[in-house]
Amino acid sequence: MIDRQLDLMELLNRSSHFLLGPRGSGKSFLIRASCLEAADYIDLLDSRTYLRLKADPALLHSLISKPLAVIDEIQRIPELLNEAHRAIETGSKRFLLTGSSARRLRRQGVNLLAGRAFRAEMFPLTWFELSRHGNFELQRYLRLGGLPAAISGEYGEDYLYAYVDTYLKEEIQFEGLVRSLPNYTRFLQSAAFNNSRVLNYAKVANDAQLSPNTVRDYYQILMDTLIGFQVPPWRGSQTRKTVQTTKFYLFDPGIVNALRDTKSLEPGSDLFGMAFEHFIACELRAFLSYNRIRLPLQFWRTRTGREVDFVIGDEIAIEVKSGESVSRRDHKGLLSIKEEREWKHLLVVSRDSADASFDNGIRHEHWETFLRRLWSREYL
User: Quick one: which of 150, 188, 249, 313 is 20 to 30 A from 275 by CA?
Assistant: First the structure.
Protein backbone atom coordinates (compact mmCIF):
# COMPACT_ATOMS: atom_id res chain seq x y z
CA MET A 1 0.00 0.00 0.00
CA ILE A 2 1.52 3.30 -1.13
CA ASP A 3 0.15 6.26 0.80
CA ARG A 4 -1.44 8.75 -1.56
CA GLN A 5 -1.12 12.48 -1.11
CA LEU A 6 -4.85 13.01 -1.49
CA ASP A 7 -6.79 12.68 1.79
CA LEU A 8 -10.37 11.79 0.89
CA MET A 9 -11.76 12.08 4.41
CA GLU A 10 -10.29 15.56 4.75
CA LEU A 11 -12.07 16.53 1.54
CA LEU A 12 -15.39 15.06 2.64
CA ASN A 13 -15.20 16.71 6.05
CA ARG A 14 -15.21 20.03 4.22
CA SER A 15 -17.82 19.44 1.53
CA SER A 16 -19.10 17.10 -1.15
CA HIS A 17 -16.52 16.64 -3.90
CA PHE A 18 -16.11 15.53 -7.46
CA LEU A 19 -12.96 13.40 -7.67
CA LEU A 20 -11.83 13.29 -11.28
CA GLY A 21 -8.94 11.35 -12.69
CA PRO A 22 -8.09 8.98 -15.53
CA ARG A 23 -8.95 5.33 -15.17
CA GLY A 24 -6.27 3.32 -13.44
CA SER A 25 -4.94 6.23 -11.39
CA GLY A 26 -6.10 4.56 -8.16
CA LYS A 27 -9.36 6.33 -7.28
CA SER A 28 -11.34 3.18 -6.45
CA PHE A 29 -8.46 1.63 -4.52
CA LEU A 30 -8.00 4.79 -2.44
CA ILE A 31 -11.72 4.90 -1.68
CA ARG A 32 -11.71 1.32 -0.45
CA ALA A 33 -8.61 1.91 1.64
CA SER A 34 -9.57 5.21 3.27
CA CYS A 35 -13.29 5.83 3.50
CA LEU A 36 -15.23 2.68 2.67
CA GLU A 37 -16.20 2.02 6.30
CA ALA A 38 -17.52 5.55 6.75
CA ALA A 39 -19.47 5.74 3.49
CA ASP A 40 -21.98 3.87 1.38
CA TYR A 41 -20.24 2.78 -1.81
CA ILE A 42 -22.08 2.67 -5.12
CA ASP A 43 -20.01 1.26 -7.98
CA LEU A 44 -21.46 2.06 -11.39
CA LEU A 45 -19.04 -0.36 -13.04
CA ASP A 46 -21.07 -3.10 -11.34
CA SER A 47 -23.56 -4.18 -14.01
CA ARG A 48 -26.43 -4.92 -11.63
CA THR A 49 -26.09 -1.60 -9.82
CA TYR A 50 -25.71 0.26 -13.09
CA LEU A 51 -28.82 -1.27 -14.67
CA ARG A 52 -30.99 -0.64 -11.60
CA LEU A 53 -30.01 3.00 -11.27
CA LYS A 54 -30.03 3.65 -15.00
CA ALA A 55 -33.65 2.49 -15.09
CA ASP A 56 -34.66 4.45 -11.98
CA PRO A 57 -32.16 7.04 -10.63
CA ALA A 58 -34.46 7.73 -7.66
CA LEU A 59 -33.46 4.32 -6.25
CA LEU A 60 -30.23 6.01 -5.18
CA HIS A 61 -31.84 7.17 -1.93
CA SER A 62 -32.66 3.58 -0.93
CA LEU A 63 -28.98 2.62 -1.31
CA ILE A 64 -27.55 5.22 1.04
CA SER A 65 -28.00 5.20 4.78
CA LYS A 66 -24.74 6.75 6.04
CA PRO A 67 -23.97 10.49 6.12
CA LEU A 68 -21.33 9.93 3.44
CA ALA A 69 -21.85 8.27 0.07
CA VAL A 70 -19.47 7.45 -2.77
CA ILE A 71 -20.69 7.09 -6.34
CA ASP A 72 -17.89 5.66 -8.46
CA GLU A 73 -17.79 6.53 -12.19
CA ILE A 74 -20.66 9.01 -11.93
CA GLN A 75 -20.36 9.93 -15.63
CA ARG A 76 -21.99 6.61 -16.51
CA ILE A 77 -25.35 7.88 -15.16
CA PRO A 78 -25.23 11.69 -15.07
CA GLU A 79 -28.93 11.74 -14.09
CA LEU A 80 -27.86 10.66 -10.61
CA LEU A 81 -26.55 14.19 -10.11
CA ASN A 82 -30.13 15.37 -9.71
CA GLU A 83 -30.68 12.87 -6.89
CA ALA A 84 -27.36 13.74 -5.27
CA HIS A 85 -28.30 17.40 -5.52
CA ARG A 86 -31.57 16.69 -3.71
CA ALA A 87 -29.81 14.72 -0.96
CA ILE A 88 -27.22 17.46 -0.45
CA GLU A 89 -29.94 20.10 -0.26
CA THR A 90 -31.54 18.35 2.70
CA GLY A 91 -28.27 18.88 4.55
CA SER A 92 -28.03 15.26 5.57
CA LYS A 93 -25.63 13.83 2.97
CA ARG A 94 -22.22 14.45 1.55
CA PHE A 95 -21.04 12.82 -1.64
CA LEU A 96 -17.78 11.82 -3.24
CA LEU A 97 -18.55 11.58 -6.94
CA THR A 98 -15.72 10.04 -8.94
CA GLY A 99 -15.29 10.03 -12.68
CA SER A 100 -12.82 9.42 -15.48
CA SER A 101 -14.53 11.67 -18.01
CA ALA A 102 -15.64 15.26 -17.63
CA ARG A 103 -17.30 15.29 -21.06
CA ARG A 104 -20.69 13.75 -20.24
CA LEU A 105 -20.83 15.49 -16.86
CA ARG A 106 -20.31 18.88 -18.43
CA ARG A 107 -22.92 18.19 -21.07
CA GLN A 108 -25.56 16.67 -18.82
CA GLY A 109 -26.02 18.70 -15.70
CA VAL A 110 -22.92 18.90 -13.56
CA ASN A 111 -23.71 22.58 -13.00
CA LEU A 112 -26.65 21.51 -10.84
CA LEU A 113 -24.09 21.02 -8.09
CA ALA A 114 -22.26 24.29 -8.60
CA GLY A 115 -21.29 25.63 -5.20
CA ARG A 116 -22.40 22.43 -3.47
CA ALA A 117 -19.57 20.13 -4.55
CA PHE A 118 -15.94 21.11 -4.99
CA ARG A 119 -13.56 19.54 -7.46
CA ALA A 120 -10.46 17.49 -6.68
CA GLU A 121 -8.19 15.64 -9.07
CA MET A 122 -6.25 12.41 -8.79
CA PHE A 123 -3.16 11.64 -10.81
CA PRO A 124 -0.89 8.64 -11.35
CA LEU A 125 1.64 7.96 -8.62
CA THR A 126 4.15 10.79 -8.19
CA TRP A 127 7.81 10.82 -7.23
CA PHE A 128 6.77 12.19 -3.84
CA GLU A 129 4.42 9.28 -3.13
CA LEU A 130 6.78 6.59 -4.40
CA SER A 131 9.94 8.01 -2.81
CA ARG A 132 8.38 7.97 0.66
CA HIS A 133 8.44 4.20 0.32
CA GLY A 134 11.90 4.07 -1.26
CA ASN A 135 10.23 2.84 -4.43
CA PHE A 136 11.29 5.26 -7.17
CA GLU A 137 13.73 4.63 -9.98
CA LEU A 138 13.89 7.36 -12.61
CA GLN A 139 14.62 5.23 -15.66
CA ARG A 140 11.78 2.84 -14.83
CA TYR A 141 9.35 5.70 -14.22
CA LEU A 142 10.17 7.44 -17.48
CA ARG A 143 9.51 4.18 -19.32
CA LEU A 144 6.42 2.89 -17.44
CA GLY A 145 4.94 6.06 -15.94
CA GLY A 146 3.02 6.27 -12.68
CA LEU A 147 -0.16 4.24 -13.16
CA PRO A 148 -0.13 1.93 -10.12
CA ALA A 149 -0.64 -1.30 -12.08
CA ALA A 150 2.14 -0.38 -14.52
CA ILE A 151 4.84 0.85 -12.14
CA SER A 152 4.30 -1.77 -9.44
CA GLY A 153 3.22 -4.77 -11.51
CA GLU A 154 5.38 -7.46 -13.05
CA TYR A 155 4.03 -6.86 -16.55
CA GLY A 156 3.96 -3.07 -16.71
CA GLU A 157 4.41 -2.74 -20.46
CA ASP A 158 1.66 -5.26 -21.18
CA TYR A 159 -0.64 -3.34 -18.86
CA LEU A 160 0.02 -0.08 -20.71
CA TYR A 161 -0.80 -1.58 -24.10
CA ALA A 162 -3.98 -3.06 -22.63
CA TYR A 163 -4.82 0.31 -21.06
CA VAL A 164 -4.72 2.05 -24.43
CA ASP A 165 -6.93 -0.65 -25.93
CA THR A 166 -9.39 -0.41 -23.02
CA TYR A 167 -9.50 3.38 -23.28
CA LEU A 168 -10.32 3.17 -26.97
CA LYS A 169 -13.06 0.59 -26.48
CA GLU A 170 -14.67 1.77 -23.25
CA GLU A 171 -14.20 5.52 -23.25
CA ILE A 172 -14.25 6.25 -26.96
CA GLN A 173 -16.16 3.53 -28.80
CA PHE A 174 -18.71 2.78 -26.06
CA GLU A 175 -19.48 6.45 -25.49
CA GLY A 176 -19.68 7.11 -29.22
CA LEU A 177 -17.27 10.04 -29.00
CA VAL A 178 -15.88 9.62 -32.53
CA ARG A 179 -17.28 8.36 -35.80
CA SER A 180 -14.18 6.46 -36.88
CA LEU A 181 -12.09 4.57 -34.32
CA PRO A 182 -9.23 3.92 -36.81
CA ASN A 183 -8.97 7.68 -37.43
CA TYR A 184 -8.83 8.34 -33.70
CA THR A 185 -6.23 5.61 -33.21
CA ARG A 186 -3.98 7.24 -35.80
CA PHE A 187 -4.49 10.57 -34.09
CA LEU A 188 -3.50 9.12 -30.70
CA GLN A 189 -0.22 7.87 -32.12
CA SER A 190 0.51 11.22 -33.74
CA ALA A 191 -0.40 13.07 -30.52
CA ALA A 192 2.04 10.85 -28.62
CA PHE A 193 4.88 11.68 -31.03
CA ASN A 194 4.08 15.37 -30.56
CA ASN A 195 3.76 15.13 -26.79
CA SER A 196 5.36 18.01 -24.83
CA ARG A 197 5.52 20.18 -27.95
CA VAL A 198 3.66 23.34 -28.89
CA LEU A 199 0.34 22.35 -30.43
CA ASN A 200 0.46 22.33 -34.21
CA TYR A 201 -2.88 21.04 -35.45
CA ALA A 202 -1.79 21.10 -39.09
CA LYS A 203 1.29 18.95 -38.41
CA VAL A 204 -0.62 16.39 -36.35
CA ALA A 205 -3.38 16.35 -38.95
CA ASN A 206 -0.86 15.71 -41.72
CA ASP A 207 0.81 12.91 -39.75
CA ALA A 208 -2.55 11.26 -38.98
CA GLN A 209 -4.07 11.95 -42.42
CA LEU A 210 -6.93 13.92 -40.91
CA SER A 211 -8.30 17.45 -41.21
CA PRO A 212 -7.05 20.10 -38.73
CA ASN A 213 -10.61 20.64 -37.46
CA THR A 214 -10.96 16.93 -36.70
CA VAL A 215 -7.63 16.96 -34.88
CA ARG A 216 -8.76 19.97 -32.85
CA ASP A 217 -11.90 18.08 -31.80
CA TYR A 218 -9.87 14.99 -30.94
CA TYR A 219 -7.55 16.96 -28.67
CA GLN A 220 -10.64 18.22 -26.85
CA ILE A 221 -11.74 14.61 -26.33
CA LEU A 222 -8.34 13.82 -24.81
CA MET A 223 -8.81 16.61 -22.29
CA ASP A 224 -12.45 15.75 -21.62
CA THR A 225 -11.56 12.13 -20.89
CA LEU A 226 -8.64 13.30 -18.69
CA ILE A 227 -6.05 11.65 -20.93
CA GLY A 228 -4.25 14.90 -21.69
CA PHE A 229 -3.71 18.43 -20.43
CA GLN A 230 -2.55 21.75 -21.82
CA VAL A 231 0.20 24.02 -20.55
CA PRO A 232 -0.65 27.52 -21.83
CA PRO A 233 1.85 30.26 -22.65
CA TRP A 234 2.84 32.82 -20.03
CA ARG A 235 1.55 36.15 -21.30
CA GLY A 236 3.46 38.50 -19.05
CA SER A 237 6.07 39.51 -21.60
CA GLN A 238 6.39 43.26 -22.11
CA THR A 239 9.50 43.48 -24.29
CA ARG A 240 9.35 40.41 -26.55
CA LYS A 241 6.88 38.86 -28.94
CA THR A 242 6.03 35.39 -27.69
CA VAL A 243 4.44 32.20 -28.94
CA GLN A 244 0.76 32.21 -27.95
CA THR A 245 -0.02 28.54 -28.66
CA THR A 246 -0.31 26.01 -25.83
CA LYS A 247 1.83 22.92 -25.25
CA PHE A 248 0.10 19.59 -24.83
CA TYR A 249 0.97 16.60 -22.66
CA LEU A 250 -0.65 13.21 -22.26
CA PHE A 251 -1.32 12.50 -18.61
CA ASP A 252 1.39 9.87 -18.07
CA PRO A 253 4.82 9.07 -19.59
CA GLY A 254 4.04 5.34 -19.79
CA ILE A 255 1.00 5.96 -21.98
CA VAL A 256 3.13 8.02 -24.36
CA ASN A 257 5.60 5.15 -24.69
CA ALA A 258 2.83 2.62 -25.29
CA LEU A 259 1.32 4.74 -28.05
CA ARG A 260 4.72 5.29 -29.64
CA ASP A 261 5.67 1.65 -29.13
CA THR A 262 8.89 2.87 -27.52
CA LYS A 263 11.17 -0.05 -26.68
CA SER A 264 13.84 1.86 -24.76
CA LEU A 265 14.75 5.32 -23.51
CA GLU A 266 18.47 5.94 -23.74
CA PRO A 267 19.88 8.82 -21.67
CA GLY A 268 21.04 11.55 -24.04
CA SER A 269 18.41 10.77 -26.66
CA ASP A 270 15.66 13.17 -27.69
CA LEU A 271 13.01 10.73 -26.43
CA PHE A 272 14.68 10.58 -23.03
CA GLY A 273 14.80 14.39 -22.85
CA MET A 274 11.10 14.71 -23.71
CA ALA A 275 10.18 12.00 -21.20
CA PHE A 276 12.19 13.75 -18.48
CA GLU A 277 10.47 17.07 -19.18
CA HIS A 278 7.11 15.26 -19.20
CA PHE A 279 7.91 13.74 -15.79
CA ILE A 280 8.63 17.17 -14.30
CA ALA A 281 5.44 18.56 -15.86
CA CYS A 282 3.35 15.83 -14.23
CA GLU A 283 4.99 16.42 -10.84
CA LEU A 284 4.33 20.16 -11.02
CA ARG A 285 0.72 19.61 -12.04
CA ALA A 286 0.07 17.12 -9.23
CA PHE A 287 1.81 19.31 -6.65
CA LEU A 288 -0.28 22.36 -7.49
CA SER A 289 -3.53 20.38 -7.48
CA TYR A 290 -2.95 18.31 -4.33
CA ASN A 291 -1.88 21.37 -2.37
CA ARG A 292 -4.75 23.47 -3.78
CA ILE A 293 -2.35 26.15 -5.01
CA ARG A 294 -4.30 28.24 -7.47
CA LEU A 295 -1.43 29.33 -9.68
CA PRO A 296 -1.30 28.40 -13.36
CA LEU A 297 1.34 26.10 -14.80
CA GLN A 298 2.60 27.75 -17.99
CA PHE A 299 5.60 27.95 -20.32
CA TRP A 300 7.34 30.80 -22.14
CA ARG A 301 8.80 30.95 -25.63
CA THR A 302 9.77 33.93 -27.76
CA ARG A 303 9.42 34.14 -31.51
CA THR A 304 13.22 34.09 -31.69
CA GLY A 305 13.47 30.77 -29.86
CA ARG A 306 14.27 31.75 -26.28
CA GLU A 307 12.33 29.39 -24.01
CA VAL A 308 11.60 28.51 -20.39
CA ASP A 309 9.96 25.12 -19.96
CA PHE A 310 7.70 25.93 -17.01
CA VAL A 311 6.44 29.07 -15.32
CA ILE A 312 4.35 28.92 -12.14
CA GLY A 313 2.27 32.04 -11.76
CA ASP A 314 4.53 35.08 -11.81
CA GLU A 315 6.87 33.58 -9.21
CA ILE A 316 8.95 30.65 -10.48
CA ALA A 317 10.63 29.98 -13.84
CA ILE A 318 12.07 26.52 -14.47
CA GLU A 319 14.30 25.28 -17.26
CA VAL A 320 14.50 21.46 -17.51
CA LYS A 321 17.60 19.72 -18.84
CA SER A 322 17.89 15.95 -18.96
CA GLY A 323 21.69 15.87 -19.10
CA GLU A 324 24.09 15.05 -16.29
CA SER A 325 26.04 18.26 -16.78
CA VAL A 326 24.68 21.81 -17.00
CA SER A 327 26.43 25.18 -17.14
CA ARG A 328 25.91 28.89 -17.67
CA ARG A 329 25.17 28.11 -21.30
CA ASP A 330 21.81 26.77 -20.10
CA HIS A 331 20.84 30.16 -18.62
CA LYS A 332 19.78 31.91 -21.84
CA GLY A 333 16.03 31.41 -21.50
CA LEU A 334 15.97 32.25 -17.80
CA LEU A 335 18.05 35.39 -18.31
CA SER A 336 15.65 36.49 -21.03
CA ILE A 337 12.53 35.99 -18.91
CA LYS A 338 14.30 37.70 -16.02
CA GLU A 339 14.29 40.89 -18.09
CA GLU A 340 10.48 40.79 -18.12
CA ARG A 341 9.96 40.90 -14.33
CA GLU A 342 11.39 39.94 -10.94
CA TRP A 343 11.15 36.25 -10.01
CA LYS A 344 11.33 34.54 -6.64
CA HIS A 345 13.13 31.57 -8.12
CA LEU A 346 14.98 30.97 -11.40
CA LEU A 347 15.90 27.29 -11.64
CA VAL A 348 17.71 24.89 -13.95
CA VAL A 349 16.54 21.38 -13.04
CA SER A 350 18.61 18.50 -14.39
CA ARG A 351 20.37 15.22 -13.62
CA ASP A 352 23.53 17.13 -12.70
CA SER A 353 24.34 16.17 -9.10
CA ALA A 354 26.17 19.44 -8.37
CA ASP A 355 23.68 22.01 -7.04
CA ALA A 356 24.95 25.55 -7.52
CA SER A 357 23.86 29.19 -7.16
CA PHE A 358 25.01 32.00 -9.46
CA ASP A 359 25.31 35.76 -9.12
CA ASN A 360 22.68 36.25 -11.86
CA GLY A 361 20.05 34.79 -9.51
CA ILE A 362 19.83 31.40 -11.22
CA ARG A 363 20.19 28.17 -9.26
CA HIS A 364 21.06 24.69 -10.55
CA GLU A 365 19.30 21.84 -8.76
CA HIS A 366 19.39 18.11 -9.22
CA TRP A 367 15.88 16.91 -9.98
CA GLU A 368 15.55 15.08 -6.65
CA THR A 369 16.66 18.17 -4.72
CA PHE A 370 14.16 20.24 -6.67
CA LEU A 371 11.25 17.84 -6.10
CA ARG A 372 12.07 17.46 -2.43
CA ARG A 373 12.03 21.21 -1.94
CA LEU A 374 8.93 21.57 -4.11
CA TRP A 375 6.84 19.08 -2.16
CA SER A 376 8.16 20.53 1.12
CA ARG A 377 6.59 23.84 0.09
CA GLU A 378 9.91 25.70 0.08
CA TYR A 379 9.08 27.47 -3.20
CA LEU A 380 5.37 28.17 -2.72
Answer: 313
